[in-house]
Every structure is written in C-alpha cells, then in structure tokens.
C-alpha cells in the first residue's frame, strides 16, 4: 500500500518525546563551558581540564547517538532535518569549545580571557534564538496543557542556568581585573564589586570549589534574579555589567508575561473544554433518558423535574434506562408522581377498580413497585400462586396454558389476543379475589403461564399491599356507615344496636 506524502513531512508525535529530550540535554550542556574557568592560588585564570574532557567525550557520544537514532528509527524527512540540524549546532558548540580553550591557553592577560568570554556570549545569543524557534515548534505540537507547562518551565529553567553561567564567567574576569589593578598600584583598594559581590564573598570562582557547588550556586543566582526581574541587582559603572543586568530584566519580564499569558490561555481553553465535555455529557444523559419509552408519556412539567434532578444530583445513567433504576434514583414524591401519571388512568380500566375513588387509586399507585423481567423469564407459572398484579410499561409478554397448542415463541394469529404489551395488565384477577376473600389465608392459583418475550419493565402491586389498601378502604367505609347510622338514630331518639348510652345527669336547681 502507498503512503500519504503529506504524512511523511509531519513530525511523528511518538518521536517528539525523544527529540524533546535531545533538545533539553543539548541546551543544558552548553552553559557548562563557562564553569571551565577557575581562579588558581596565584590569582590567575586556569582551566578545569576534567570538565573540558568530560564535555568533549559527552558531545562526541551524544552526536553519535543521535545519528544512530536516525539510522535505527525510520523517520520522516522533517524529523531527519530537525535532528541533523540539532547535531550541526552541537558540532558548532564543539568548535566553540575548542576556540574557547585555545584563546585561554594561548593568550595572555585578561584580553584573551575577555575575548573568550565574549566569543561564548555571542554564540549563546544566537543559540538562544534557535531555542525560541524550537520552543515554538514544540508549543505547536503540544496538545495537552501539562505538556505546554513543561515546555515553559524548561525554557525558564534554561534562562536561570544560562545567566548563572555567564555571571560566573564575568565574576572570574572581575576578580582578575581587581587583582591586576591592586598589583599594579600596589595598594589594597576596595573595589566596586557590583553584581558580583556574592561570588567574591563565597569564593565561588576559586579552584578549590567543586564543580557541583559552583553549578548549584550560580543556577540559584540565575533563577532568583529572573524571578525578581533583577530588582536586587546593583551593578557598577561597567558597561558590560549594565548590559548584562538589562538583559536579565528583559528576559525575566518577557518570560513572566509570556508564561502568564500562556497560562491564561491554557486555563481558558481548559475551562472551555471542560464545559463542552460537561454539556456533551449532560446531553448524552438526557438523550438516554428521552429514549426511554415511558418517559415520553409523562407531562412536560414532570419531564423537566426529572431532568433538573438529574443535573442537580449529577445522576449518571449507564446504558439503557429502565423503570427500576429510574425510580431508585429519584425522591419518593417525584417517583410517586411518575407512577400516578403512568398508571392512574390505566387502573380505572381494571375490574373492580372502576368503582374505586381517585383517592383510593392514588394509594394503589403509590404502592406500586418497579420491576424488570429478563427476556424469556416466566412471570407466572401455571398451577402456581399469583402473588402480584403487573402493569406493563415496556416490553412484550405472552400467556398460554398447557391446553394451548401454540408455541410460546411463535404465537399463531388466533392467539394474538394472548399477547401483552405496553399498558396491559397481567394478574388483574387478583383484585377481584382479594375483595371477595380479604381474610382468606389461601392464595389465588393461576391457570395460565405468563412469559416475557422481551425485556419487560413493569410496575407491580403485591398481594399484601393490595390487601392493606382494601382493608383501609373497608375500614373507612365501615366508619362512614357507622357514623351515618349514628346520625340517623340520633334524629329518631333511638340507640343504635351495640351502642352504649350514658346515664342522664340531672342538675338540681336551688
């Protein structure tokens, strides 16, 4: 299969991490050249040979490693050009170090030293321009906020590392200039140290100080003054020293402004993304809810209440909605209102429920329990007791007996009347039986089997709940008739049977 030419020119995302690591190592090593300068016991400059040899070996191995990386890993043309460009810059850094060491080793006095320092400084200025170009490349590829923050942090740390190294080199030159002036005048004068006061007080440029101590001290100095925008720096009248302080202030302000601006953009994008995901999640949840068939039969007011409760309580719906998990996550009052709207009109079509008042039917609705039957589950077995009456909200059922010849799955046209669907009942004969034999300990036996053809959602009325409602209704009716009988008997001056009368109390008047 052919490959897309456009894809070859794109920087592979998976290899960006490796290239980014190469970039960090490369820019972190260059400022270490400054630390090769030391002041020996004779108050003259010298070179840290061990550090120079280490940097020579490191650059050689690092360049070879990157070339092997290009050979071993098939890369796009753009990636190859990018990595080769990095290697060329490192070779220039290699040459820079050679020139730097030659100037120090072959020159005499502070002129050679100054030329070497200026050479490295000019090179690092152009090197910094390259860093910003690479920075823009990685910022364009970084998609996550954390990646962008890491890139900004690396650039900030690099600034502290770079300025710390330059400050160290200038501090060494400052001390040599001071030593030369003192020896020429043969006086011990108090020199204007400027921004290098910390270096002289700590003897950080002396040969006896370890490389790690120098690196950490200068790195701390660079970060501290970048963070404070150079406010604590008090330079002398030296031209280069003042230029150096100005560069630190500008770099610190630019980095701070750039970092804060990017952070605001990142926060804005993150907030926007979060809101979009939240809105999509809410819409998805509402879509799941609206796909539930019984939900469409509810009033708009009740639908709105359910959605508001869902958003307010961050109620998560997974997969399909059914009556069981819906009512379980809703308040009791809201669940009762749903059951009333779904079943109140249907109950008025069930046997003796037709003669019941709306108040009594509302009680029945409140006692309904949600239940879900699995596909092909037997709800009622022939010859077994009927314990409940079910109102079908969604799904299909069929009823059959042992005398039927039709299959429980392939129902014939003549027996289609035995199919139950949304709005139908099964076990409604339980209502008549409870009213006829409310105190009977026996159970109603089914003469048919009821089986779910699909997943069935139903609201179920248990036998015990139905008996409780009927007994309460009977007590209310009996109390009403008893009260009515008392009123009629009172009008006739007679005592109803079974009623006790209090003896008349006669009050004698004096």
Q: How does this model look, in words?
A:
- By secondary structure, the chain is an alpha+beta fold.
- It folds into two domains: 13-253, no CATH class; 347-488, Jelly Rolls, CATH 2.60.120.
- It is 61% helix and 8% strand.
- It is built from 16 helices and ten strands.
- The chain has helices at residues 5-8, 13-29, 49-72, 77-106, 109-141, 145-185, 197-202, 211-227, 239-290, 293-296, 300-312, 323-328, 332-347, 358-367, 429-436, 463-492, and strands at residues 37-39, 45-47, 369-373, 378-380, 388-394, 397-400, 419-420, 425-426, 449-452, 456-462.
- The strands form three sheets. Strands 3-10-5-8 form a four-stranded antiparallel sheet. A four-stranded antiparallel sheet has the order 4-9-6-7, with no helix packed on it.
- The longest helix is centred in the middle third of the chain and has 52 residues, at 239-290.
- It is rod-shaped.
- Residues 1-11, 405-417 and 495-510 have low confidence and may be disordered.
